[in-house]
Structure formats: structure tokens, C-alpha cells
UniProtKB/TrEMBL annotation:
A GO cellular component annotation in the UniProt record: peroxisomal membrane
Gene Ontology biological process terms from the UniProt entry: peroxisome fission; regulation of peroxisome size
Cross-referenced Pfam families: PEX11
Keywords: Membrane, Peroxisome, Peroxisome biogenesis, Transmembrane, Transmembrane helix
Transmembrane segments: 83-100, 120-142
Protein name stated in the entry: Peroxisomal membrane protein 11B
Amino acid sequence: MNDTVDKLVIFLAKRDGIDKLVKTFQYVSKLVNYHVESTDSDMAKRFKNWEVASGLSRKAFRTGRFLTGFNALRRNPGSSNTLRLLAVLGNAGEMVYFFFDHFLWLSRIGTIDAKLAKKMSFISAFGESVGYIFFIIGDFILMRQGLKEEMKLKRRIRSSNDNSKNDEKESKGEEVEELKKRVQKIKGDRVMRLMAVAANVADLFIAVAEIEPNPFCNHTITLGISGLVSAWAGWYRNWPS
């Protein structure tokens, strides 16, 4: 119990941790509002206010976050030219998203002309969707590379087990254990990348709903579920190990 509390404290100390918690509030309240709208207008209004307040607070909390794209590229530019290009394009799209999201927030709270909200929302969502597409492609490439590496390591493990001799048993055992650790690391990385893909695909639905409104993406259930998938996938990725 104490370990869980400690991890929760660490999680909520992160900017992303707070964001995922408030995002959960935002999309749970959206779904509740949709559910009670026809039966309890007063309750629906309260949850709508909660949704709006959560959305605006997330935008305020993300102030300056567009600069993290530079840091991400500096720390992990990619291991190949293809991955490096995908990282640049993905982070560029995300930086456009976060930068124009500032103006969307200011227009919605009335600090600047409210008429700018629609235009800022479109630019922000467009940059967001472009970034997500390149991030998704990059994650699939890395997962494919990881699967190939995992298969090679497993073949080496089988070979070591089959060819081990009594006088080499101890050294072979140490080698096998090291190979198994590398396999586990690849599997753990793949789970994290799957969570990233799930979050990015979910957020892509939300962005498309803003760029090109349509009955499917703009439906409250679609938006609500997409928001929660994104929030909980991010929650999983940011939860302390």
C-alpha cells in the first residue's frame, strides 16, 4: 500500500502525470454529461462545466511545452536517417500543436479575440495530427526492429543451451541470463511503444474531429473513449516502475 502511495506521489509530481489525471476528469465528465443530458439537465450542466474547466486547465498547464520538442530531439535524435527524419517531423508537428494551443487557450478565456479560437484550433489540431502520424510510423519501425533483435537473441539462447558442455556450464549460464535480460528489455520497450501507439491513434481521432468534422469522430462516445484511451495509455507509460 505504501509503495503504491509513493508511486502515486512521484507520478503526480510529473507534468505528464497531472495532465493524464486531469485528462481523465475531462473525458469521464464528457461521457457522464452525454449519459445524463436527456434525463437530468442540472447534472449534465455540472459535468459539462467540469469538462470545460478540465480542458482549459490542461491548456494552461501545458504553457511552454512546445519547447520539449527541441529537448526530445537533442536527447534522442534517432539511430538511423529514417528514424531521425521521423523524429524531426513528429516533434515539429507536436511543437506546432503546443505552440498554437496557447493562443487557443487565450482566445477561449477571452484574453484575445474569441473569433481566433476556431482558426487556432484548426492549426493546432493539424500540427498535432501530423506529429502523431510520424510518431506512429516511427514506433512501428522500432517495434519491428525489436522483434528481429528478439528473434536473434532467442536463437542464441537456444544455441547456447544446446551446445553447452559441463566445463563451460557456468560461463554459458551467465551468457544465457544476460541474453534473457536483453530479451525482457526489448519486450518491455515494445509494451511502452504499443501504449504510445494506442495514445497517438486515440488522439489522432480527436484531432481529425477538429480538422474535418464527421459523424464518427465527432460523436461524444468516440471522443470520450479516445480521450480515456489516450489518458490511460499515458498513465501506464508515466507510472513509476
